[in-house]
Amino acid sequence: MNRDSLLQILRYFFPCTFFEEGAFGLNPDRERIVSRFLEMDKNPISVTHLNQLLHLVHEAGVSKGFFKYYFQEIPLSHPYPVRKVTKTLPRLDNRGIASLEQLEWGLRRFHIDALLFFGNIRSAYREFRVKDYNTLESFFARKRIPSDLNSRGDVFPFLDIRVDDRYLISELACKAFSPISPEGPSCAEQLLIETYRKAGKDRMPVHALFDEDSLLAREDPQGQQILECATQEFADEHIESESDLREWITKIHPRFEKAHQCALENTRLFLSVVNELDVYVATSMRTQGHYRDTAHDCNFIFNLPGLKRFCLRYFDPTISAAKSHEDKGLIECLMVKCCRVLLYFAGRGDSFGKDAEVAMAMSLGKPAIILCPNDEKGTRRARFFRDIHPLSRLIDFETGVACGAIVTQNREIAGQVLERIFDNAMEYDLENDGSAYFRLRERLTQSVVRLQTNDVLLRETFWNNYHAES
Question: Whose CB has fewer CB within 10 Å in the chain, the N or C terminal residue?
Answer without folding.
Answer: C
